[in-house]
Amino acid sequence: MIEAYGLTKRYGPHTAVEQLTFQVRPGIVTGFLGPNGSGKSTTMRMILGLDEPTSGTVTIGGHPYRRLPNAGRTVGALLDAKAVHGGRSAHSHLLSLAQLAGIPRQRVDEVLDIVGLQDVARRRTGDFSLGMGQRLGIAGALLGDPEVLLFDEPVNGLDPEGILWVRNLMKGLAAEGRTVFVSSHLMSEMALTADHLVVIGQGRLLADMSVREFLDRHSTGFARVRTPDGAGEQRQLLAKVLAEAGARTDPEPDGALRVAGLPLPRISDLAHQHAVRLYELSPHQASLEEAYMRLTQGEVAYRSGASAAGPAGSPWGAPPMSYPGPVPGPAADPLRAPEDPAAAPRAEAAPAPDAVPHPCGTAPGGFGESEV
Ligand SMILES: Nc1ncnc2c1ncn2[C@@H]1O[C@H](COP(=O)(O)OP(=O)(O)OP(=O)(O)O)[C@@H](O)[C@H]1O
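Above: the input record for the complex with adenosine-5'-triphosphate. Below: its predicted structure, written as tokens.
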């Protein structure tokens, strides 16, 4: 169990994390969600003893990370998949970590097998793709067969098959009774992976509840209504009538109307009274992604200038970023802001934990350059 109480981190005048109190329980996957710059990595670094809280506490199994007995075996983490010496092979990287933590050599082959890197185990990690690097980072986290696992954006760079694999891995680890805390800015992915959500915005707690409860609380129902003439006169008349009755209406790209604020029978009655024929009248629930966008609206630290006003006719007013839906390419990632050097986390000199490799793959004192 991970427990944070009043966790706060300030960098000079900037508050990165503010009064966070939450628990991460064993046996389930807990998703840690927030837009870019909301404080997820800072929180994870404090959990792992890599950053000192300005105030508040965070413990794993009742101990601060640095006082954990056998931390290297109790906690595994993937923080930054790129934090690997590019000249070393995957095998030698993992072997160094294993040796420092007193983990038997054969475990290296086991974790390489689990993450599917056995065929490239002797290749330079510098030649690895982003996805292979993620798999290597996950292998490092699993090395000590730990009870508590933290993953910071583990699906970054993975293809659909890799994403599915990570999802099943997380669920499997939780099913074994482990504590699994996984950060993401993609609600759609978390909806399929997590049982519980901790959502933050600008360092503050926005939600701490099950995925089901999150949906029930934050998503709103709406109706889709379609007239035979698409965006023609009939639809215009219906939109006017529904708006007069108190509904919010928004045009959908396919010519339908999205109607919120009126029950379906009332929409049907109004259409009938005004002789508007309907080809569709169907109930819908906003997706988890939409619910998340609504919740974090106004909590986005870095926003894209082009889309800051939101799409025309957005049912959510002016969301912090346009959400174009499942479009391939960079636009599919609604919360990724353009590169902002000011937003890049800077390494903070923190006293090294005990002389064991850190679960996120960084070893106190550094590793040698040569193959082991
Ligand atoms: N060492 C640091 N010094 C100063 N500011 C920092 C430092 N580390 C993080 N920050 C700031 O704290 C805020 C939270 O950053 P953090 O990296 O924790 O967010 P995040 O939610 O993990 O973002 P992302 O999803 O982009 O990784 C940001 O405004 C960031 O610029």
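Notes for the reader.
Residues 2-217 form a domain with the Rossmann fold fold (CATH 3.40.50.300).
The longest helix spans residues 160-175.
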